[in-house]
Amino acid sequence: MEAYLDNSATTRCSACAKDLMVRILTEDYGNPSSLHNKGKEAEDYIRTAREQIARTLKIDGRELVFTSGGTESNNMALIGGTLANRRNGRHIITTGIEHASVLAPLDYLKELGYEITYLSVDENGQISLDELREAVREDTVLVSIMMVNNEIGALEPVEAAAKLIKEKNPGTLFHVDAIQAYGKFRIYPKKWGIDLMSVSGHKIHAPKGTGFLYIADKVKVKPVIYGGGQQKGLRSGTENVPGVAALGAAAEEAYEDFESKTERLYALRERLIRGVTEIGGVTVNGRTDRDCAPHIVNISIRDVRSEVMLHSLEEYGIYVSAGSACSSNKPAPSRTLQEIGLPKSAVASAIRISFCAETTEEEVDYAVEKMKEIIPFRRKFVRK
Amino acid sequence: MYRSFLIKYAEIAIKGKNRYLFEDALVGQIIHALKKVDGKFRVRKEQGRIYVDTEGEYDYDEVVGALKCVFGIVGICPVVLIEDEGFDRLVEEVLSYVDKVYPDKHFTFKVNARRARKNYPMESMEINAKLGEKILEAFPETRVDVHHPDVVFNVEIRNQINIYSVIVPGPGGMPVGTNGKAMLLLSGGIDSPVAGYMIAKRGVAIDATYFHAPPYTSERAKQKVVDLAKIVARYSGPINLHIVNFTDIQLYIYEQCPHEELTIIMRRYMMKLAEHFAKENKCLGLITGESIGQVASQTMQSLAATNEVCTIPVYRPLIGFDKQEIVEVSEKIGAYETSILPYEDCCTIFVAKHPVTKPSLNVIHNDEKKLEEKIDALMQEAIDTTEVIRIEG
User: CB of B259 within 8 Å of any CB in chain A?
Assistant: First the structure.
């Protein structure tokens, strides 16, 4: 049996997204910038995708810029948003548990002279709105807060944050990294007052190399990629038509039967937590109720290092994550887990299990069963 | 502009009656190295010289790069070969050579003629003087300096005439295959690939053994070792890499023996396994990257303890090297970047906080008795399940 439980790292491309891509790659392969009919046909695919996504967010399709994925969207929002609004100040607020694709562009802005405030989080990874209120200043140009943390699934109060930020400083831009949240929560950026929002395609069964940035009407963003002026000059480069069309289809699918899918995911999460906590010395990092993402569970297993657990499960065809996949290029203790105050030993023994709509109860039970076998065995062999 | 490369080799020229064996091995290694390079090449041996002739298009840097990995080569000289059509013609060719190879004429030079074909009408000294004169006449910015010239124009009169001035240093050493074969204990670290390189440099072909310990070490750690073996194989030629699953042995030692002795006892069994594969593959010795005192398992006492189980010689070419010196060679051979990729290797998984640094053989022997029940079966299983991957250079 195989159980792919690493859906926060990436998901399998959906059949309908794949079929659409194949058709566009082999038949309707025109360049949307071409004047002829084949170009127009390609442009239609993009228009359709815009509409499909816009419906899920209750926005105008023209407020979307298609990118190569979450990292590019975050870079564009932070660097492009900050540089286009330089006159509003030189102060930026974020949290200590953001993804590297937020923290690294902010490091770059720090080099350019911006001051960055990192909000703390509680033991469940949630920020405090009071601390945020205190932090917003007259010269705060941008606030960036993730909606769902990629490692522990913590849910941040972005709707309330948006309101609070705008009350304190209407000129401050609010960016939300919704890469782990889109498709799992209903998100209404326009209604809530979010200015910029990043989404990645391959987390919702679209292919890798796809994503978008929502840029609210009238919000100014400087491009980070220059060239032929596609997408109103905001993101030059021939549009990834097959990818964009697949993203549109996947977005639509993500919000079909939304309530029942979400309910199923929470039920799976609770099932897994019940199962693993029966094994002694296994603790959940983050919340165990429903005030968090439905698809991510992070646990620490006393006396079994993350990689050992991961590779032990891999022998049974069970795939999980140690830390976040994107940061595995340079293994370092997880910043999120340190920020929520976990002791070193719990950080070193943390694994993340993440679901998607296709995940079954059998897969979860299989993983729990194998963990019940593996953990006591591995605990016999600890570094002394 | 070069159709040929003259290959210089020094050490192997002094090997008396065995000389042809060494030369043939070198020719073989050159042919092997050039297989990966686009283009048509012919390697020929002539009057105690080896030439690489090219036919059609080729990339100069690629050819030189490949030849720089061939042990036994001391220098690679891109050479212009001309037929003997009289001295005036030679002058023309030399002037054209100087002009093309040295666009900036502000240099000092001397001409170094060698008359291997004694029936040539002029003597070496005379050729030197006349050619020097002509070069000075044609390029007045140049100057002659017979003691410390910037450039030496070599003109060798043989069946054909060789003109060359550029000598790209080769790696030295002896052609691989002229000194038997040895088994390298290859980990994912910095030291062992360097050790393999250094022994290969002395003409020794290499096979390798790696100890894999899933789930404690990952597939990526194994991939890293394969990549390192490929880098060593660029110099040593093909390597048979033995991947031994060592987990069960390691866990058994963990259960039975004192924790401080785990690493030493483990290494003794690694040596035994490596020796098994060495003998199976007609290797005449083992190679390790050990250096005295680098870690607890490499003190004189620890080395003695691991050495004790071996019945064939263990070569430790880095024994007197400091870490920095090892790193320098690692960088030179292009292994460093790969070596420092952060994957755990099986020696560090259970390493004790305070491992023994002065193990006593008596104590070790006693503790190993605790393994008697299962160790033979586990060793046999490790041997039976070993995967062998052929790594082409």
Answer: yes
